[in-house]
């Protein structure tokens, strides 16, 4: 199913529609905005994955232990 959506003719049709809707002056700006949004999404996903990989800090089991000492 995905192969049919990403065929070159479909991508060309999407580009033509975007060009008609946005115009030639705003199309690069929209592309940059979309690219930065995707980059930000990927960065947030990788940050979340790194947080999950880090072990949680275990509290000390020593009753005489004072934090920061």
Whole-number radius of gyration? Answer: 24 Å
Count of DSSP H/I helices: 3
User: Major sheet, described briefly?
Assistant: none
Helix content: 55-70%
Query: SSE order in H/E notation?
Result: HHH
Whole-number average pLDDT?
81
Q: Which secondary-structure class do the elements indicate? A: mainly alpha
Number of strands: 0
Head-to-tail CA distance between termini: 61 Å
Question: β content, as a range?
Answer: under 5%
Enumerate the spans where pLDDT stays under 50 for 5 or more consecutive residues.
none
Instruction: Tell the overall outline.
Output: elongated
Main location: membrane
Transmembrane segments: 6-23
Protein name: Sec-independent protein translocase protein TatA
GO molecular function: protein transmembrane transporter activity
Describe the protein in words.
This protein is mainly alpha-helical and 69 residues long. 67% of the residues lie in helices and 0% in strands. The protein has helices at residues 2-5, 8-22, 27-53. The model has no long low-confidence stretch (mean pLDDT 81).
Provide a compact summary of the structure:
By secondary structure, the protein is an all-alpha fold. The chain has helices at 2-5, 8-22, 27-53. This is Sec-independent protein translocase protein TatA.
């Amino acid at each position: 199913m995905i192969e049919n959506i990403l065929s070159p003719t479909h991508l060309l049709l999407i580009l033509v529609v975007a060009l008609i809707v946005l115009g030639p002056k705003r199309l690069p700006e929209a592309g940059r905005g979309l690219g930065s949004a995707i980059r930000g999404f990927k960065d947030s996903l990788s940050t979340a994955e790194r947080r999950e990989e880090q072990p949680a800090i275990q509290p000390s089991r020593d009753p005489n232990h004072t934090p920061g000492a």
